[in-house]
């Protein structure tokens, strides 16, 4: 099992996806679970600050990942593919807010542990190596400066033909999300003490995946011997 944690916009999802393909592992994007709670809450008219109601809602959700047409796993809520609806800045914001609440984190802990239980998985999120799977064979904390992440986010929005806010605004949004994710009292965003930290500020996408693959293969050899 490989745990990859790190802040918003660092490229975890895309690099973790390529890494999983190279290793022949299944990818579990745990942020999608928090996004699904935010989406379901909005539909049920539960506020993103209503800790107990959110926890109850999260505990009842039927969450699953199923392969889409490209083979990539897509999040299904009650058996319906809702993945596209989760990938908006609003749901990113909502996920960051609902994830502050311990009842929500508790409800999703079991879901994540079930998804990782069979091994052969890359899990990516914020607290995988510290809380969800502290015994993962490989733990990587992927980081980059807020500026670098804002530049990547801008490229991504441009490539998808979406409206692009000014760079300073993107950078400020990154920094605000970092603050909220790192300051929360429960399972804050931080590197596991016994993991690797990879600063991707000056690395290309390909170089990050190469470095991750090298780390994983080295660790696996150590584990096997
Ligand atoms: O990775 P993402 O942007 O899809 O995550 C959205 C939010 O979900 C993130 O701001 C914090 C929360 N999250 C979390 O608290 N723990 C995780 N393991 C994954 C995501």
What does this structure look like?
The protein is of the alpha/beta class. The protein has a single domain, classed as P-loop containing nucleotide triphosphate hydrolases (Rossmann fold, 3-Layer(aba) Sandwich). It is built from 10 helices and 8 strands. It has helices spanning 12-23, 31-44, 51-60, 83-86, 89-98, 102-116, 128-132, 146-159, 167-183, 205-224, and strands at 2-5, 26-29, 63-67, 73-77, 80-81, 121-125, 138-143, 196-199. A 5-stranded parallel sheet has the order 2-6-1-7-8, with helices on both faces. Strands 3-4-5 form a 3-stranded antiparallel sheet, covered by helices on one side. Residues 8, 30-31, 34-35, 92, 95-96, 99, 125-128, 177, 181 line the site of 2'-deoxycytidine-5'-monophosphate.
């Amino acid at each position: 099992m490989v745990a990859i944690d790190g802040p918003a916009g660092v490229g975890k999802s895309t690099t973790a996806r390529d890494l999983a393909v190279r290793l022949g592992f299944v990818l579990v994007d745990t942020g999608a679970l928090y996004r699904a709670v935010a989406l379901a809450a909005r539909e049920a008219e539960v506020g993103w600050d209503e800790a107990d109601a959110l926890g109850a809602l999260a505990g009842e959700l039927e969450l699953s990942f199923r392969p889409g047409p490209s083979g990539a796993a897509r999040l299904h809520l009650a058996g319906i593919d809702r993945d596209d609806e989760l990938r908006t800045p609003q749901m990113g914001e909502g996920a960051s807010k609902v994830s502050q609440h311990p009842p929500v984190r508790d409800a999703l802990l079991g879901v994540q542990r079930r998804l990782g239980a069979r091994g052969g998985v890359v899990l990516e999120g914020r607290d995988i190596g510290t809380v969800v799977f502290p015994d993962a064979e490989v733990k990587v904390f992927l980081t980059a400066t807020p500026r670098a992440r804002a530049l990547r986010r801008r490229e991504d929005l441009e490539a998808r033909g979406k409206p692009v806010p000014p760079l300073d605004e993107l950078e400020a949004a990154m920094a605000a999300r970092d603050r909220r994710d790192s300051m929360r009292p429960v399972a804050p965003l931080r590197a596991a003490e016994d993991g690797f930290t990879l600063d991707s500020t000056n690395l290309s996408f390909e170089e990050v995946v190469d470095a991750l693959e090298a780390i994983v293969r080295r660790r696996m050899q150590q584990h096997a011997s």
